[in-house]
Amino acid sequence: MTRQIVLDTETTGLNAKLGDRIIEIGCVEILSRRVTERHFHAYVNPERDIEEGASRVHGLTREDLASKPKFAEIARELLDYLRGAEIIIHNADFDVEFLDMELKLAGLGRIADHAASIVDTLAMARELHPGKKNSLDALCERYFVDNAQRTLHGALLDARLLAECYLAMTRGQESLVMELETPAAAAAGAAGLILDVSRLVVQRASAAELALHEKYLDGMSKESKGAIVWRRILEPS
Q1: At what angle do helices 92-105 and 121-128 cross, to 10 degrees?
Q2: Virtual torsion, Cα 65, 70, 75, 77, nearest 10 deg
Q3: What is the pLDDT of residue 186?
Q4: Which of 13, 44, 83, 85 has the greatest number of C-beta atoms within 10 Å?
Q5: What pLDDT shows up at residue 177?
Q6: Is the model's pLDDT at 154 over the cut of 80?
Q7: Are the CB atoms for 71 and 102 separated by under 8 Å?
Q8: Is the per-residue pLDDT at 116 higher than 80?
Q9: What's the DSSP call for residue 85?
Q10: Beta strand 34-43 pairing with 86-89
């Protein structure tokens, strides 16, 4: 299975072409659809002022970053972490433009030269939820990802939130391999299979877990603007 890295950056402003620079990079790793403990995080000295509007978003100033390493000093460590992975970014064009600019200044090519592929979760969300808000905060609300700590933008925190949203957005994909198996093949595989269920332990959901499940179904019903399959199945006939 391809290793996946969820990546986010913070910058001095919005325009790499006008000289804005990266000031923070945060990455988290997904293996077998689980977020691991292996992450990458760095603050970067941009060697220039930070726009006031950008500083209000992430809370960082030039003085905060004066003692931090320059991008070229952390670039190879970043690339070693990313190499060969599928990189997942929200609004990928923005971050990729900044990463490509920084890598070019460091003489290290482009981000696509080091990654297996790049996935844009903003484009994915727009396809799944056309006409809806698809910011990271909107995705957190839609998929019940707790973003209460996100009072300011931060690259590592945002990467972790996006990882949870991405896993929720792609939840159905792990069943694709099973769907390729034909009913005949499934029946053949089950033939002669004897299961001893005498010691089978049934773990019932707790009241708290049932409440969370109902909350999730409420969200699904709101998104679909009608009854959802799970509740129709359980309706008394």
Answers
A1: 170
A2: -70
A3: 47
A4: 44
A5: 43
A6: yes
A7: yes
A8: yes
A9: P
A10: unpaired
Please name the residue ranges forming H helices in the chain: 52-58, 62-65, 71-82, 92-105, 121-128, 136-142, 155-169, 176-179, 183-190, 207-224, 229-234
Structure tokens at 33: 């659809």
Q: Which residue has the higher pLDDT, 175 or 39?
A: 39
**Cα–Cα–Cα angle for 136, 137, 141, nearest 5°?**
115
Contacts of 105 (CB under 8 A, 6+ apart): 71, 72
Flag whether pLDDT at 183 surpasses 60: no
CB 147 within 8 Å of CB 161: yes
Catalytic residues: 153
Strand partners, 10: 24
Number of other residues whose CB lies within 10 A of the CB of residue 64: 15
Q: Show the tokens assigned to 177.
A: 């391999």
Q: pLDDT tier at 194 (50, 70, 90 boundaries)?
A: low
